[in-house]
Each structure stands twice: as C-alpha cells, then as structure tokens.
Amino acid sequence: MHRESDAKLGIQLGHAGGKASTKVAWEGIDQPLDEGNWPTVSASPQQYLRGVSHWSRAASVEDLRAIEAQFVRSTELAVEAGFDWLELHCAHGYLAVGLPVAAHQSSQ
C-alpha cells in the first residue's frame, strides 16, 4: 500500500444504527430503500426521519456484544491491510451517537 507514496491512508468505521437501510445520497439521501429493507438496531427505538423512516429496535446486550466484536475484527483487518489510522464515525444518527443517552437510561 505504501510502495508508491508516503501518503497516509485512513479508514472510517461506523454502524449506521437507525439511519441504516436507506438510499445512497445521489438516489435520495436518508430515504428508505424502495425494496429490500432490513431490520435496524439503534441505542433506543427510533425513527430516523419522523414519518418517513422505518422504526429501529433497541439493541440488546447481545447485539452490542456482536457489534463490538465486528468493530474489533474490522480494526484487525484494517491493520493487516496497512491502514495508518482509523476513525470511528459517531454522528448523523449512527449507533454510537445514541449510546451515552441509552446508557444513562439503563442500568446495563
């Protein structure tokens, strides 16, 4: 990866949470897919765009453990591939942005 340039390469990891299962930006940003939607999980039940998006369900402890394992594995793969830095996406409705609020509301 670094044979041709001294440039550093980064990767962004994120979990789209309740914003998932939507169209790509140039086909209707944040709009639900016309078909083939999948169930989504978020920190708490939510409808990303009120009256438009489907409702996500709250992630269970088991869901969060599985998601954590997926982040760990993705990070390991990024290191193996030679990425120089990693950014965790925590905005715009993604799962991580809602976790502090959900943690405050739950004893788990």
Folded structure, characterized:
The chain is α/β, with parallel strands linked by helices. It is 33% helix and 15% strand. The strands form two sheets. The chain has a three-stranded mixed β-sheet. The chain has a two-stranded parallel ribbon with strand order 1-5. The radius of gyration is 16 Å and the shape is globular. The N and C termini lie far apart (42 Å).
Low-confidence stretches: none
Our Rg estimate from Cα atoms comes to: 16 Å
Spatial ordering of strands, largest sheet: 2-4-3
| Biggest beta-sheet profile | 3 strands, mixed
The percent range for strand residues is 5-15%
Give me the secondary-structure topology:
Layout: E1 10-13, H1 25-28, E2 41-42, E3 46-47, E4 55-58, H2 61-81, E5 85-88, H3 95-105
Parallel strand pairs: 1-5, 2-4
Antiparallel strand pairs: 3-4
Q: Brief description of this entry?
A:
The protein is α/β, with parallel strands linked by helices and 108 residues long.
Jot down its keywords.
108 residues; alpha/beta; 3-stranded mixed sheet; two-stranded parallel ribbon; 3 helices; 15% strand; globular
